[in-house]
Amino acid sequence: MDLFEDLPEPGSQKASILSPETHSWGNASIDIFSDLPDPSTQTRGVKRKIEDENGKNICEILNEEKLYDIQGFSAEKKGEREEMQDFHILIDDYHKFISDLHPSISRLSYYAVFDGHGGARASKFAANQLHTHLAQKFPKGPSVNIEKDIKRTLTDVFKKTDEEFLKQASKSKPSWKDGTTAIVVLVIQNILYITNLGDSKAILCRYNNKAGKHVCVPLSTDHSPTDYKERMRIQKAGGSVRDGRVMGVIEVSRSIGDGQYKALGLCSVPDVKRCQLTDDDLFILLACDGLWKVFSSEEVINIVLSCKKERSENKNEICYESACNKLVNEAIRKYSGDNVTVVILSVKKN
């Protein structure tokens, strides 16, 4: 199963600016590891200064990269549920959580939405622990293949978070039955890494020059038991899909928690996608299925675009805080019947 997919850049079929050949973060087209000595041919104690042909330090060049200014906004509402089972987290300065971070990374941010079901314990646990585990396992030094390291780390962190929650759930009497979906956006320089489980979504608002308007770029794929590959995996494990749900109960095929269904095909292996930010990008939006039950992606983008700042020199400047609140309020008003959580990440030229 291909768990690592590239999202297209505008006007190009090239998948990503961070390729195994360049090993560079963001827009700086430099091989930051090509100057490192081959461990098999070097003796211990030999040091080399990493410089380009003009004598400038590689880290200095990378730090000159123009990063987009990204800022997170959020809103949530309980809706008709008895309790709020959603949790979300916004960390603009995630690099502060990681010691010995590679000097080429000057911006690292973390954003996530967790949509709980069967209780709030799984979503709360994931919100508290997943970014901590990621900080501990985040690649810190030179690597032969950065891309694979990031993919492996994100996948391992989701697995570890799931295993730890299931251990805690099984020790409780009675055992916890809680589960949660997850949508996580990790921003490294100007590259997005989108990791998801279940039916929470992330979309990107990008201006399309040919269409002459802003369009939606999907950043995630739902994990539904009705999907052929998902259903085959569930049935192969001994489970079944009835009424579009695992064993007629769980309406997602991947999640953190839900221990009683893990032996029946439900898994915690996430999809990981990658997307390069461009000058045409306006914002990224993450939300639980409470929003998507009543709004299409295009409707969501139009609502955000309509929320202009009243007191601003730029009449087209968007008030993202108001947009978050309007989306959750309108979703509840349209009888979503679920908890609703929305996170918007504004993207601006710095």
Q: Give, in order, the helices and strands.
A: EHEEEHHEEEEHEEEEEHHHE
Pairing-aware structural class of the strands and helices? alpha+beta
Sheet with most strands: 7 strands, mixed
Shape: globular
Q: Percent range for helical residues?
A: 10-25%
**What's the gyration radius in Å?**
21 Å
Key descriptive features of the protein:
seven-stranded mixed beta sheet; 350 residues; alpha+beta; five-stranded antiparallel beta sheet; 25% helix
Could you describe the 3D structure shown?
The protein is of the alpha+beta class. 25% of the residues lie in helices and 25% in strands. The chain is built from seven helices and 14 strands. It has helices at 58-63, 121-137, 146-171, 228-236, 289-292, 297-306, 320-333; strands at 4-6, 69-77, 86-91, 108-117, 179-188, 191-197, 201-208, 213-218, 241-242, 245-246, 256-257, 271-276, 281-287, 340-348. The strands form three sheets. Strands 1, 3, 4, 5, 6, 11 and 12 form a seven-stranded mixed beta sheet that branches. Strand 5 and strand 6 (191-197) form a beta hairpin. Helix 2 packs antiparallel against helix 3 and helix 6 packs across helix 7. The radius of gyration is 21 Å and the shape is globular. Residues 12-53 and 55-62 have low confidence and may be disordered.
Draw up the topology in text.
Layout: E1 4-6, H1 58-63, E2 69-77, E3 86-91, E4 108-117, H2 121-137, H3 146-171, E5 179-188, E6 191-197, E7 201-208, E8 213-218, H4 228-236, E9 241-242, E10 245-246, E11 256-257, E12 271-276, E13 281-287, H5 289-292, H6 297-306, H7 320-333, E14 340-348
Parallel strand pairs: 1-12
Antiparallel strand pairs: 2-14, 3-4, 4-5, 5-6, 5-11, 6-12, 7-8, 7-13, 9-10, 13-14
Helix pairs in contact: 2-3, 6-7
